[in-house]
Specification:
By secondary structure, the protein is α+β, with helices and mostly antiparallel strands. The chain has one domain. It is 34% helix and 28% strand. It contains 2 helices and 4 strands. The chain has a 4-stranded antiparallel beta sheet with strand order 1-4-3-2, with helices on one face. Strand 3 and strand 4 form a beta hairpin. Helix 1 packs across helix 2.
Length: 86
Amino acid sequence: MAACDPVTYQGVTASIFQSVKQELENNGFSVPGTNGTIRGPYGIVIDYNWDEPSESLYIHVVDKSFFVPCSQIHSQLNNALTKFTA
């Protein structure tokens, strides 16, 4: 098990956050609110914090299976955000 470098996304409005949250939940992650810890498949554990006033979303993968590279997790997050910001 290992961690990934944290990532902060800017320009994440309430609408975008809700859409990304739904996308993550559709992929097996439970997103309980605007901040906390998400536990997903393949041993993925993510700490996150969405700050509405600054429209920033901080994501830190704190644990994961070695079978899943950080690049794949970050790619899926980028794809989810791009899907709703483009």
